[in-house]
Amino acid sequence: MQSIARKAALSQATAYRHFPSVEALVVAYHEDVMASLAEHGERSRKTGKELFEHQVARWVKLQNVHGPVIARFSSQRGFLERLQCGEATAALSCSAWDQSLRGVLIDLALPDALLNVARFLHNALFAPREILDLTKTAGLPDDQVVRRLSDAFYGALTGWGSR
Q1: Does the keyword Transport apply (predicted)?
Q2: Is residue 3 part of a domain?
Q3: Which position among 8, 12, 137, 158 has the lowest Cβ density within 10 Å, counted as fewest Cβ atoms?
Q4: Is 60 exposed, middle or buried, given 0-12, 13-18 or 19+ CB atoms closer than 10 A?
């Protein structure tokens, strides 16, 4: 927290007054990123896969800026467990992604009952750490990351839905 306070030009006491721990600060940071993604989706007039890919493109751009922090402090618990326990960040993720995930289910002629599966698969494929790996380590341009991960998501969801 001392290093963060110094970089933000705040006293350590001021930083602790707003955030009791580094974890609390990172959660607030992640929530802010998710809220901006949710707003981005709400402003869009797109639907179905088009909306999903619009959101994915924004998410990839956000990871280029915020991903290192989010990935470094990612929860050790699975997404569905965090959602079931009412974790705020997991709930915010649903508010940012559910409209586009439901649109993908409709476009793929899959039942809405697969929403939790779509959430799970989305979380696994589009994790900040994995996006950074593709953009920074593999050197893929953002549009290729969007295309390849979206296609993998559609295939995984279709495969899961055919069981």
Answers
A1: no
A2: no
A3: 137
A4: buried
